[in-house]
User: What shape does this take?
Amino acid sequence: MTVPTPRTNNGAAAGALLRAHRFRAIELIPWILAIAVYFLFPGYRLLATQILVLILFAISLDLIVGYAGIVSLGHAAFFGTGAYTAALLADAGWQEPISALALGAVTAGLLGWVSGWIILRTRELTLLMLTMALGIILYELAKDLDDITGGFDGINFENTAILGLFPFDVLYYTTNYWYAFAFLVLGFLVARTVVHAPFGRSLVGIRENVRRMHAIGTPVQQRMRHVYVIAAMIAGVAGAIWVQVQGNITIGVYEFEMSGNILIMLILGGTGRLYGAFIGVTVFTILENLTETVLGTDPPYWELVVGVALIVTVLFAPRGLLGVFDPLIRRFRERTP
Amino acid sequence: MTADLGPAVHENPVLETKGLCKNFGALVVARDIDFALEAGARHAVIGPNGAGKTTFVNLLTGALPPTGGSVLLDGLDIAGLAEHERVKRGLVRTFQINTLFNGLTVLENIYLTVAERMGVATGLFRPVGSRPEVVAEAERLVEMVQLQDDAGRTIDELPYGRQRLVEIAIALALEPRVLLLDEPSAGVPGAESHIILDAIAALPADIAIMIIEHDMDVVFRFAERITVLVSGAVLASGPPDEIAADERVRAVYLGHGHG
Assistant: This one.
């Protein structure tokens, strides 16, 4: 113990805390890939756009699952609420897309604020059941009110050009891709800022040990409610973009499958690291698409493939696909103080 | 740090309980407890296993709601205050079993606490890295319990005795006025327990401290006053020599295995 290793002493630990929020060159990779995909695979822009939107959705879920440790099986409640806000506004004549999307964030956030008041009083399985219940209630409600929501058939609607300059393009997904891309960048930066702020650190504390958080004077429930609202708003934005780029909405946005899949994608990629969302959504969606192309959709083999992929991940990479690299990175850091 | 070490003659205790009761159904775990802790007090609470000592701590901190009676902080009933609000008013506890952020480093454990105490933990935008004063304060506390060589290790990587020091550092980071130490040396190997005891001996003199402890050497070295709890009720309370001489205490408590 006479010669402390550089990683463990006070100064080094403080340095790590102080530098944690700085951008690293490696963080450019997903964005370069996203730009490259647009030019290299023009035939896949629809799929790529969906991936971008789902990444944003998964990032919002990561804030509550990965950071605060609140596992939700009903995150589509916020996605769907943002989506319906944007779609119904457009249908009623409010066709400016960005303000509609902002209002989608507001309604989803309000839903988060109100539902969080009840849901976050509970813990673990009860909490999980309540998040699921919220999703199911909204889905059934949307199904019943099909004269407003369009039910299974859905509603087609149109938005005016983005900033009055770039019209949506549902055939070739040019504008649509960059629209989703821009909001993914924005949403990601918000999430990244929040998790590196003291607020985000305190969420990790809640995940690690709730009892200890109470005992250091944290109003735990209030803090969870705040992140719940932030996550709901980002999910609302994702939902709004999801339907705006398609010019169509069905009650599918509220489906339980939506909530379940996004959680699976996040776990696949790795929780509590934001970038897990990128990997998880991309791998899941491409896997789903590949199996559908190769094996057809009847029967839906992709569910089997995704199931196997998930089991393999949980068994061999419990911290998700990105977590596989953790030991390598740690070894690298120890060698280069 | 210059505290009045003369006989405690304060009229108003910092922390006080009146007729504090707690039942779990038919099981009575706290029975009419009257207790007072004055500024700068060194007060030990002892009692056999299952006497309700940790329950008493939980009632004081608000982790458990009492069935009856009241807890007063600075003379005010704090029944309506949640656990975290009591912490904000200087009522701080440590845990009998380490209750830490096991996946985080020692420094991060302290950092979270300091951020909370300084009121910056709600900050959404400015990153941790642009608040060096908070990190510096965390570093200072890590040095105070002499864990500077382990600051970058996660709690998981530390031996239990050193984890115990993190419990104490967290408590200090909260700048307590009243500190409730729940068996601070429990689970610590004998060879390491002096580190804990030294840390406790070095605590600022103006903090009112209640210590729950099984080790009679620690109790008689540390305490200026002792309260004996048996079956959730106060059996005796007084200066150490009085307690040591008390026949009832000897019978129910000291008699077991200490004779």
Summary: The first strand of chain B starts at residue 15 and ends at 24.
